[in-house]
Amino acid sequence: MTLEACTEILRQQDPDRFGAVLVAAPERRPALVTLYALNLEIARAPFQSAEPMLAEMRLQWWADRLAEMGRGTAPPLHDVLTPLWEAWAEAAGELLPLAEARRRDCAREPLASTEAVVAYVDATAGALMWLAAHRLGAPAAARGVVADHALGAGLAAWLRALPRLQKLGLGLDGARAEDVRRLTEIARESLRRAARGRRAVPGSAAAALYPGPRVPRFLIEVLRGNIDCFVETPEISPFQRRASLARLALSGRWWR
Length: 256
Known about the structure:
Layout lengths: L2 H11 L1 H7 L7 H16 L7 H19 L10 H8 L7 H5 L2 H4 L7 H22 L7 H18 L1 H7 L8 H20 L18 H9 L14 H14 L5
Organism: Paracoccus maritimus
InterPro entries: Isoprenoid_synthase_dom_sf, Squ/phyt_synthse
Protein name: Squalene/phytoene synthase family protein
């Protein structure tokens, strides 16, 4: 039950965040690694059963453990929860909203509007980025900037995953091209606002704000009509991923 287990989960399942973690100060990495590993497990929980009630029971198990940790109760020995407790202690209770935001996934219901997508991304990607950034020293005054950046990056990730989400019944109800365009425009403007407010975020939080590779280019190509988000999932090459992470490591620049 060590940090290495969480590190391996992150390396295999979320290579972009794994690479970004390495940019953080060494003493801050355990908190990020365990947070991101927890997020992966929580996101996966609703899909471990096709029966909504059973899926919610699996998600509830994580919610209960986080609530107990928030009250000061150490979790049972576990590959993720044990190192999470070591890194976060009672502050792990603050991570409970990450589990609550995934309850709708258990029901396999598509999102009905662009507003619903924005709210979902805010509650998932937005909450995760703020928890990470705050842990790395971002002050409360920077929360709006982090929220804007998380929304832009989160919407790009959601749109990139839309073909898979549609098949799972978790995408966009009605599959309207104009909704995709509107979400893309919201994402671009959110990223621009965050870039304008970047001075509110300390350099120590750069690792937490990494949006992933080629986000602006992806959004531009969607608006130009070169990518149909309902049928295409553009691949990120290993070279593009390495180049994007190298830029973050060398410059500390998370904005575009």
